[in-house]
Design brief:
alpha+beta, 6-stranded antiparallel β-sheet, single chain, two-stranded parallel ribbon
Amino acid sequence: MDKEKKVKLIQTLLENSLSERVSPEEPETEDSDIAEIKFHYALRKIINNYFDIHEMEITARDLQKDIMSIIMDLKRRQLSKETEEVDQSSEPPHERDDAYPTGATLDEDGLVEVFEKKINAIKKDVGQSDPITYTIWFPWHVCWQNEPDTFQIYDLSIERSGDYWKDRLESLVSDPDADDGRYISEEIQEREYEIWVTELTAKSPHYAFIEFRNGLQLLSAKINHSLLNLNLQPLADRRNKLRRQTLIDARWTNIRLPFAMFWEDDRTDETMGVDRGFQGCNVYTKGGLPKVQLDYEDLQVTYENHKNFDTPSTTDDTTLHDALIDYQKGLTTESHTESFLNFWRVIEELSLVDRGQKKEIVERARFALSVVTGNDYDPIIDEIAEEIWNVRNNWVHDAGWQRVAETQERVLKILADAMINFHALHVPDLEPEKVQKILKWGTESKLKRTSEESAIREVSDLLS
């Protein structure tokens, strides 16, 4: 980001901070709403430019208070400069009541330089802070047989818990700051849940809990893909919903996030201070979740070929990771139209098409299906697949509304299965550029592929 852009963003923060937007004498107006949008836009751009929040193991939320302190300090400096106030204090004006003092001044160093020195001070402060280890328990409605000792996802090792969770949950029930502790306890007593546990380390509780939630989403996606791969049949209740137009749950699967989690960290009453740490809980879904009975042996082969996303890879795993998250969203929404759009995002991401090649998305997914099935699938899949591009286009680009047929959603789910299968099991260690070439070659006509293969053999013979 160039200096001019930085100055503009910092000035936007200064001119639209909360103290500028809110006045005791005047009610909030449309202008104050615009000012709020400007402020949060600038704040987001500043954080994205200056901080690697994943590397720092914090969230944007954790940085807002410190950045606001810097903005208030710069605002005071500007006001002092504008009114030409004379400070008779023996203490240098830039050090008194200063947020992250650096010794720099606006006159001598300039706005951007002062701001960046303070930003660097925040980074140093975060870097020197001690990481916190969180123990997280969750009631899992998935009941396993023949399961492994540990499920690994990211750096999380998830395993069955001993009985210590009972003491922690009992403590939460009586904790006035843990509003949902009693609800979690009553829900566990009422239904059949197995308690699982994991640990993770981070500088911020917000980061830790986002990492946990994302990890459980990804683990659920891996389990679901391994179980439902190339399966056209959603949950039985789907047909009841379509026939009776009731509010019956119409998901593909009930394997999703647990209904709640509760936790403790390694801080003590003496060290937690204003962080209010040590223990807590969170409820994701009220009303509990239906029990799902699984035998690990039914999905073991496919599951163990999936990546855990736990170690640095020689290839970029981001695309497959994000596609699995979209796949999980498609499986767990009650609307087959929303499922359709999520499954579309899966094949769009994994088709690796360039701009201007969007029509090739479905063709590349069909190629992946032919690879993973050995061309052993019913021709009706191809016929319905040909409709999918137009249906998606009408939803995204046309002013009219076109109904998504359930058959189209179900076939698109098969194409999403095939694309994930292709990337995870057939080309897991290839660079995206090579996978892109394979997918592009696979959608060429048979005549063109045969001609290219013949030419390659001839060149190989000449060079050998």
